[in-house]
# Entry
Amino acid sequence: MCGVVRFEIDVPAVWAWHDHSLASRHAQGCAYATYVGCWKSRVHILKGKTSISRFEYGETRTVRSFCARCGTPLFYERPHAPKMVNIPRAVFAARTGREPRYHVGLSEAPDWAWRGDRSRASRA
Ligand SMILES: [Zn+2]
# Structure
């Protein structure tokens, strides 16, 4: 958001998914996060590498990186896919070559997240 960190990926990305897990909801501050997955070797930091902060969540050994200046989430790494990195789809200005095709963690979705079902719209 602030422009201190700039990166690009080689397209197309490998996968894209909607993450409804509690951990991603808290880390991103939204009902669910949409990620684009790439090979780490195909992510190129153009500027601001020293402004990238990393947080390793010990329980799951996942690593989330964000801009140290403005807090924008940047990278989400999971131990079962060590050569891959997931990047919030919303931070890209251009197409990534991959559309979200699946949902993860739907069982952890909050009851306040509206999915277009009008009968649930009044829960707050
Ligand atoms: Zn920033």
Q: What stands out?
A: Residues 1-2, 4-5, 67, 69-70, 72 surround zinc ion (CB under 6 Å). The longest strand covers residues 33-39. The domain at 6-110 is CATH 2.170.150.70 (Metal Binding Protein, Guanine Nucleotide Exchange Factor; Chain A).
